[in-house]
Amino acid sequence: MLRTRFASLQAEQGTDKRAYIGRRSTMTTAHDVMHPGCERLRINENLTDAARRMAELNVDALPVCGQDDRLKGIITDRDIVVKCIAKGKNPTEVKVGDLIEEAHVWWIDADADIDEVLHQMAEHKIRRLPVLENKELVGIISQVELATELLELVEAISSTSQ
What we know:
alpha/beta, 4-stranded mixed β-sheet, 48% helix, 19% strand, elongated
């Protein structure tokens, strides 16, 4: 992602890597690092369908939205195992909404700076952070996206010192 942004920036503006890296921290937002257009589950879907969707998408969690299309929470494959299957419940009979706790749903605005993303994830000890724009779910940030972004930054910095 960073490499792509650098290449397009360099092509458009003739900028070298050092200048790009210097500006990177001011231009990286939640929108820049999120996984866009993430799939979502509906609160009334059963857990079998939820697990099937996670398997098809090769993800371990999905955001959950209500009938009003507003974010209600996130459900993980571990939630399905621990809160349903391990308790002897039938996942076909249990709805996604049954596992969503009434706790606060943490999210971040798409325009938020990457420092705020990191702060929110660290402070609340969460691995995934839904991204909202005008109260609409537009993506999700996971530790994977952040690790990828960091790796690309390290590679870009390393290439400037050669």
